[in-house]
Amino acid sequence: MKESLLDIICCPLDKHDLDLAVEDREDGEILAGTLTCTDCGETYPIEDGIPNLLPPDMREDAPA
Amino acid sequence: MGDETAGGAGRGDPPALTDHDPIATYDRIATHFSKTREYAWPEVESFLADRTAVRAIDVGCGNGRHTELLADRAETALGVDASRGLLREACTRAEDRGIDASFLQGDAAALPVTTGTADLGIYVATIHHLRPRRRRIRSLNELARVLDPGGVALVSTWSAAHDRFADVDPVADADVRAVTDEEGTPIGFDTTVDWTLPGGERVPRFYHVYTPAGFRTDLAASDLSIESFEVSSGNCYVTVRLEPGSASKE
């Protein structure tokens, strides 16, 4: 994802802004990292350049 | 809205698999499905024909065939889908074609998109995969939320007007389930529509099939207002705007 996307994305739960932590960047594209809600603290992974902003209970790795 | 917050009710509980079927289903069929979704729908092309935008959003973007049209006419084009498999197809397709669009994984009923950010939106052939009814209405409210006050969007759904459903009797048929509004008026039915993979394997997909009148009912229950409504090739195509004063609407 491009860093500029931060201007228009938000936490799916409470719609607050997200903080970005980059783990891998290539040619300006963020390939891996974490988005963290500045309000509720929920974290969302960026994998293969695609942020996963599904609500946590819809994620594949949702804890049972 | 009097409804629970999107994504809030089930947090911490084991995922209800029935709710999440579309993700697993589309992840499974993504490659083949995408191959059969090469071209934009003419109804979407004509809706977009004279429109330009600063920021445009494609909810339920699938392989991105319509996000591509948005990228041609908007400074920023964003495609959202619940299926990672389809998003991979979308990213590959955009890269191959040199399309400047962004894609992210998200739920139509809990959009991870800033309020009032999009002046153009499309939400086509997706709402029929959501259940139950309150999630479908919530997804319409989410589209309204992300539209800016002057924004416009196209919403479409497969409908009971399609030839395929001509013989369906929601009351008598055991494999479909009638859905009504609060007053008991039928608005459509739930059913299963198989996707057949090249090897012949059939993958069931959940569908809520609205009657055209039922789709109007749910749009009226949402924060969107109807600008135009047409039925074409068995699909309902509705041009919508943010309802004035929707924030105070129940």
UniProtKB/TrEMBL annotation, chain A:
Domain of life: Archaea
Protein name: Uncharacterized conserved protein YbaR, Trm112 family
Native species: Halopenitus malekzadehii
Lineage: Archaea, Methanobacteriati, Methanobacteriota, Stenosarchaea group, Halobacteria
TrEMBL record, chain B:
Biased composition (Gly residues): 1-11
GO BP terms in the entry: methylation
Region (Disordered): 1-21
Single GO molecular function: methyltransferase activity
UniProt entry tagged with the keyword Hydrolase: no
InterPro entries, alphabetized: AlkB_tRNA_MeTrf/Diox, Methyltransf_25, SAM-dependent_MTases_sf
Keyword flag Transferase: yes
Domain (Methyltransferase) ranges: 57-151
Pfam families: Methyltransf_25 (PF13649)
Source species, domain of life: Archaea
UniProt keyword annotations, A-Z: Methyltransferase, Transferase
PANTHER family on file: ALKYLATED DNA REPAIR PROTEIN ALKB HOMOLOG 8
Protein name per UniProt: Methyltransferase domain-containing protein
